[in-house]
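Dock 1-deoxynojirimycin; give full complex structure.
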Amino acid sequence: MRQFKLSRRMFLASTVASVAFAGKIANAATPKDAQIENIIANMSLEEKAGQLSIFADGTRSNNPNINPAAAKQGIEEVKEQIRKGTLGSLFSAKGAEGAREYQRVAIEESKSKVPLIFAADIIHGCETQFPIPLGEASSFDLDLCERTAKMAAFEATAVGIQWTFAPMVDVARDQRWGRVAEGAGEDTYLGNQIARARIKGFQGGDLTSETTVLACPKHYAAYGAVQGGMDYNTSDIPETTLRDVHLPPFKAAFDAGALSTMTSFNDINGVPSTGNHHLLTDILRDEWGFKGLVVSDYTADEEMIKHGYAKDGRDAAKKSIIAGCDISMQSHLYNLHLPDLVKSGEVPMEVVDESVRRVLYVKKQLGLFENPYRSLDPKREKTDIRTPKAIALSREAARKSAVLLKNDNNILPMKKSGQKIALIGPLANDKYQTLGTWAIFPDYDNAVTLEKGLRNQISNQSLIKSVKGCEIEKPISGGIQKAVEAAKWADVVILAIGEKQEMSGEAQSRVEITIPKPQQDLAEAIAKTGKPVIIILSHGRALALSGAVKDANAIMCAWFLGSEHGNGLADLIFGDYSPQGRLPVSFPVYSGQQPYYYNHRPTGRPQGPKDERFYKARYIETDNVALYSFGHGLSYSKIEYSKPNLSAKTLNFTNSIRASATITNKGKRTVKEVVQLYINDNVASLTRPVRELKGFKLIELAPGESKEVSFEISATDLAFINHDLQRRAEKGGFTLWIAPSSVTGEAVGFELV
Ligand code: NOJ
């Protein structure tokens, strides 16, 4: 235990009432290291504040619009800051040569000689793009998630990046929120598994390796719970829900070795995350023993002024450093105010030193003191990006991430010859709409559109007629007429519609999560031709589908599948592979149902059979159901599930029971099946979700093959955060399903005694 311990009450007194700091700092437990202690002992306060500051590097960024202020800086200006020690890390740029020179200045010309870390948002690939994270979560394929993160790290380190601001592990239960695209969807259990896999992929077994990056699970915390799904909004969230739903993926990521995290923009119950001592210190450090560093989101410390939580920049700097935010991103507040805050006694030197210690500890774990030029090798930049292996992985990830929602009369897969295809829609052949929201270094030239992917696989090119029909958000004069003519000529229509990639991601919340009107009009006109229609949706969230889109013969969720978008889709459309994707978010019937998530708690008036509609929990316009619920997704075979079988009807707190089911492929194709285990706690001291995912297994089944799939269940799997904020299982009855989605399967009961 360190000498200073700041209780929550003392913290409130020292910040809210702006009295001088008095009390103890939390138990940070950063391991002491002679080299690090020596550096800290010789640093000026200004250098310490610099070590705790990160800035966007506009000199090597390919997108000056992201950080306009940084884009104005010249190389010499940046070097001067490094020399003076007023920054400790740079982000949002690439280029090994340039980074090497900045690193040389840091270790040769600055007084403290502390190496820099170079960071960037490597979210779903670096040079080779993989599906957006939400899309990839649909694969339910943890090995895939680990391999794409590993490849992203391989490419990132080839272009001089050592720290990624990923994975985003925010649980997102409201599809209006644009950033749902960046995470693993609405479910905590799935989120935990994917967080773990991505951390393993990014960081590997050895953080000092030239090909691994420091991961940064973000945004800590409850950013996915912003009210109304509006980005940056407030979140009011009971501590039980916070701990039960939103925090576990962070804990899973830290347990997997993640050594940094980023604060979120939102406030929780009135306290902005960046100034939230309870989150950043009480939980993160004291309870979980996190030894890594905390970075603020972009100017999130300064934004506490607009939140109405800090009266000015100085107050904001004080509140965030005391809360436990080690690094200030982009606001300059630590440079500007930390030295004086320490001199005036408002912030103890120990607080600042502890943050510097954490940052230096992480730099040491990355091997930067031994090898400051780690991952800054200009040769690799030429040989290690967009390798055939990376492209093949991108294609594999693309085809494993698409979800087949509907396939009437087995219209999919299609034959590669003998059928005339009208490929219609604004998302059929637009390279700018393939990579997804966070392709930070996009290579649009090499992006494979749906049209390109389909054409790559057929020999008679005249079998495809391609017509745009409309723009994503605007009609084209005469566009629908041309599209209808193409549909009449064709045997089948493939309609590529949905959102543009800028409709999801940061600051891209939507009120209506629907297909934009010009495209809906296009779909209605095509439907009137009576030709069979296959919809291929591009999107960064679950959508509320209606009319001719909902009624199409087949619907495939294609998200934004990355560099190999079109090739991956063509692999599925022509049946070289069967879809394995399952929904990580529920598709509602209407936008107005948001937030809709499958694992909601039961009401006292759940809706019964159709004739019992009044005074029940439902809407006038729709039942309280999803159009396509979490976990849903079809393959190209008919798969049957037996009723689950239990090894015993009771378990206690020390043993476990086995639940198993036989899964049979009744079709004619080898397919992958995502076998899902759900549980409901029948009666508890706090009401529990109608169903909760507790396990899943991805299996392959040959035609006619049956496999027994089993899950071990112990009391730990049944535990939840109770009223006393303890994770505990409670005795009593439970219901269990082994099923292909969150709303199907036969139920069996068991008891915890
Ligand atoms: C703001 C975003 O919220 C965050 O996710 C990102 O990592 C930072 N900007 C840095 O680019």
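Observed: The first helix runs from residue 8 to 16.
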